[in-house]
Design brief:
Length: 210
């Protein structure tokens, strides 16, 4: 599903998408102690990742290209008394952001892009991540059977995508946690198979924010 298939995502958010589980994905929680300093949550949805790190007194910005999940995220922040910035922004326009971050989280966005948009997205990530900052990425794996849901991503695709200007620290098999749905048996038991990737940005001058 391409990221700009706005109608599909709007339809999902008219209800409750299965990936909205009321807390961060376990892979993100397991890595939380490594995610220190300022944080961009790219494709933040209704903000559970952002709000978790805001509760740890971190400077957090969450972006999503749809107004509805951003409105929900802002409401959650107010209800929980947490300070986080939420902005309606297409992740393919990251080069326009005037800020750079110590870390970026992508929990479920990378795998929606076409090849061309993926390259543009990674350039944008590099432009808003400080030298030696880390990207924590959770994406669908090609080990997940079938073709329902997002595009599957192979280890080789990840390695090739981050071959220039990045150092991949780890690529580990993981799972997406999803809400149970007795009417939808699209995904593997235990949740869709995923990759959890940690990649460090280099310090090449052509990746620096102007």
């Amino acid at each position: 599903m391409p990221v700009h298939d706005r109608g599909s995502f709007e339809s999902l958010y008219a209800g409750q998408p299965r990936w909205e589980i009321g807390r961060p994905q376990r892979a993100i929680l397991n890595a939380a102690d490594r995610i220190t300093g300022s944080l961009l949550d790219s494709g933040c949805g209704t903000g559970e990742n952002s709000l978790f790190f805001a509760s740890r007194n971190q400077n957090v910005t969450g972006i999503d290209f749809l107004p509805e999940p951003i409105a929900i995220a802002k409401r959650k922040a107010e209800e929980r008394g947490l300070a986080a910035t939420f902005e309606v922004r297409d992740a393919l326009t990251l080069t326009d952001l005037p800020e750079v971050f110590d870390n970026i989280i992508d929990s479920g966005l990378f795998h929606v892009f076409s090849d061309a948009d993926r390259r543009r997205y990674i350039e944008g990530l590099a432009s808003v991540l400080k030298p030696h900052g880390r990207l924590f990425l959770l994406c669908f794996s090609d080990d997940e059977p079938g073709d329902q849901g997002p595009r599957r991503v192979s280890r080789r695709e990840i390695e090739e995508s981050f071959a220039e200007g990045w150092a991949i620290e780890s690529i580990e098999p993981s799972r997406y946690e999803v809400r149970p749905d007795p009417n939808d048996a699209s995904f593997s038991n235990g949740g869709p198979r995923a990759w959890f990737v940690v990649a460090r940005r280099g310090d090449s001058p052509n990746l620096a924010k102007c």
